Amino acid sequence: MIDFYASLSPNLKASLIITVALIIILIVIGKKVEALDPKESPKGVVFVAVLMVEKLNDFIKEFYGKQWRTFTPILVGILIYLAFANTSALFGLANPLANISIALAFSLFAFLTIQISGLWVRKPKNRFKDLSSPSVLLMPLNVISEISTPLAMGLRLFGNLLSGSVMAVVIFNLLNILGDVLGTLGAVIGTIGNVSIATLVLHPIFNIGFGLIQAFVYFMLLTIFLSMAIEEPEVAE
Known about the structure:
Shape: globular
Helix content: over 70%
């Protein structure tokens, strides 16, 4: 077991650590929520968790109506994982989504979730009609769209997070080059500049800002496309 863990890439190790940590944290918070006195207001982390779940529930209800309870756990779970995975550098971990295999796994996950949910809710016959609308001749294009959409969602995560890392490296290298040009004083300035930019600029932008934005974008896209797969088409009057 130890040899298997050691053979994994830093991204996969970070993904396992984040998953296990979130399972433990959410179980602890869940127990605290169960023990809450209905007459008392929650405080601290429990208050934040309850407020976040309440807001997300209200948001998802607008897309799924009566079926919101079925799909909310998986959508919220994905959002929480991505929020922590995309900001994992703040905890000294590699970014899981910077690994193309993990990004493609999210594409496969989105594809299977959308298709299985569509078949389950709409039934195979109606799902076939949805894919062949407005004409059966367009079904190949609709099928391609069903495949390309989740693929693009996963690659979007990978591309944005990788580009952020590349931009950070480029800025660091430019400061180092500037230091070499200016000599000893420049090297000192470059070192201070690297530390300052990493702490005050790059980490908040790439690790917090961009990471959380990409997590929410994936959550939004999955929410929208999943709701489209299970909704009944409007009947013309």
